[in-house]
């Protein structure tokens, strides 16, 4: 892996967030292999601090989210109606998520007096809904692009087109796997009694989050590498 690509990625918000996420969930996963309670506690503290850092960085997400919503071409951005409406709903969900998580963060650190559990549950539900909408869009893209080009197999342009379509499908499939992993551990943070909420162990969450993070990093660096070569 090119060190220049990693360095360039770490200069961006998305890059730092992805690496912090990876470190956080790998620390959770590492609790499986330790027998010392003290080491276990340190790994959990490290993981929590990485998550806290991500949450603090998200305090600045409101303006970029609103700007993205304003730039979005509400009727022409996507040719497929289902993807378009899923995107519109997701934009709304993400915009609502930001202030709710900020309020939870402020309450968690005793800056304001609130019922932390209610606000935490609300932000978790919005997070899961956003993930599900992303999954819906990726599944739709796989189906939407699932067609064959009825041209000669010796046609060079056709082979290039098929190669590009297969590459896009593979990327969307990886995205689906990543989102399913995210949804799987996100449900654990819902109130107990909802599906498997509260039943996963720390290392279960760790391995699911680590796999999701590594897939995301692979997709990002693969895309950056192709862009550089192009």
UniProtKB/TrEMBL annotation:
Primary site of residence: membrane
Classification via InterPro entries: PEX11, PEX11C_met
Annotated keywords: Membrane, Peroxisome
Organism encoding this protein: Apis mellifera (Honeybee)
Protein name, entry field: Peroxisomal membrane protein 11C
Cellular component terms per the entry's GO annotation: peroxisomal membrane
Subcellular location: Peroxisome membrane
A GO biological process held by the record: peroxisome fission
């Amino acid at each position: 892996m090119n060190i220049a690509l990693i360095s360039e990625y770490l200069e961006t918000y998305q890059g730092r967030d992805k690496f912090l996420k990876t470190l956080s969930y790998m620390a959770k996963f590492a609790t499986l292999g330790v027998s010392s309670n003290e080491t276990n506690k340190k790994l959990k503290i490290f993981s929590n601090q990485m998550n806290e850092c991500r949450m603090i960085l998200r305090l600045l997400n409101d303006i970029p989210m609103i700007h993205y919503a304003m730039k979005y071409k509400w009727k022409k951005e996507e040719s497929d109606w289902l993807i378009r409406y899923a995107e519109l709903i997701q934009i709304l969900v993400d915009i609502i998520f930001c202030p709710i998580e900020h309020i939870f963060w402020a309450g968690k650190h005793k800056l304001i007096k609130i019922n932390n559990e209610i606000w935490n549950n609300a932000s978790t539900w919005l997070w899961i809904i956003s993930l599900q909408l992303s999954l819906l869009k990726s599944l739709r893209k796989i189906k939407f692009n699932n067609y064959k080009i009825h041209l000669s197999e010796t046609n060079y342009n056709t082979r290039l087109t098929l190669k590009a379509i297969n590459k896009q499908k593979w990327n969307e499939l990886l995205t689906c796997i990543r989102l399913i992993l995210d949804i799987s551990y996100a449900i654990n943070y819902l109130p107990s009694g909802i599906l498997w909420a509260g039943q996963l162990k720390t290392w279960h969450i760790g391995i699911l989050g680590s796999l999701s993070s590594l897939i995301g990093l692979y997709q990002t660096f693969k895309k950056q590498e192709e862009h550089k070569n192009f």
